[in-house]
Amino acid sequence: MEDTFLERMDSQLSGWADPVHRLKSAIENNEFELYCQPILQFAGNERYPMAEVLVRLREEERALVPPGEFLPVFEHYRMMPHLDRWVVRHTVKRLAQGSRIPRFTLNISGQTIDDVEFPRFVAAQLSANQVDPSRVLFEIDETDTLVRLESTERFASAMQALGTPLLIDGFGSRAVSFTPVKALGVQFVKVDGRITRKVVSEESARSKLNAILRVGERLGFAVVAECVEEQDVLLRLKAMGVGYAQGFGIYQPHSIEALAAVPA
User: Fold this and answer.
1) What is the pLDDT of residues 172-183, one digit of tens each?
2) Distance CA 240, CA 224 (A)
3) Is the pTM for the entire model greater than 0.85?
4) Which of 49, 51, 125, 48 is closest to 84 using CA atoms?
5) Please, what is the Cα angle at 223 between 221 and 227, to 5 degrees?
6) Is 226 exposed, middle or buried (0-12, 13-18, 19+ CB in 10 A)?
7) Residues 38, 259 contacting (CB under 8 angstroms)
């Protein structure tokens, strides 16, 4: 089983003979590119007040490699903290240069959440580049909040002390539980796409989303609906009182430089 996994991963990465060496080299030589997907705000002064940062790997013969092909190898070799640091470093530098997108959201792996040094790294990067901590928002997967609650509570406490908001991603993918939301004091939850896609066609999806919205009003977190692809879904989300929406039906991912660069 293990050999099959490694063979599949190596095949996905064009037969890299030494995946660890290749990934370390990619980080050291900045062989990644940042993309981002803007998040729509239904009401407010900023139409796109934030965007989710996405990472791509440059391969000479294959152009940009999507994350689904290389992230599993990073995870298998427990190298996600290295990649997450690279993403933070370059996102903060982009913000320091000026950005039309006021805030970027960054996905943080469970391995990085377990890394007790990571919050200090984030603080150092923000301080060195003179970037307001509120302009970076970390996305934690709902699964991580359930299986490593102690680590996520420690991470959340460090981020709150720094002034960096948090978001729980994939919310409601299982039975809806607000325990992590209360424990971590998050500012946003991103509703799982399996709920979002069905808000027009299924009453159960609308009921689940309405429950999340009601609790959000009570606990003080905002709701982001992900995977919005159809106009009728977008209109239904707005009518239901969802605050934010993201998806290919709203805005395709673009190079972070293309979206963030401030006109001269």
Assistant:
1) 877 678 888 999
2) 12
3) yes
4) 125
5) 155
6) buried
7) yes
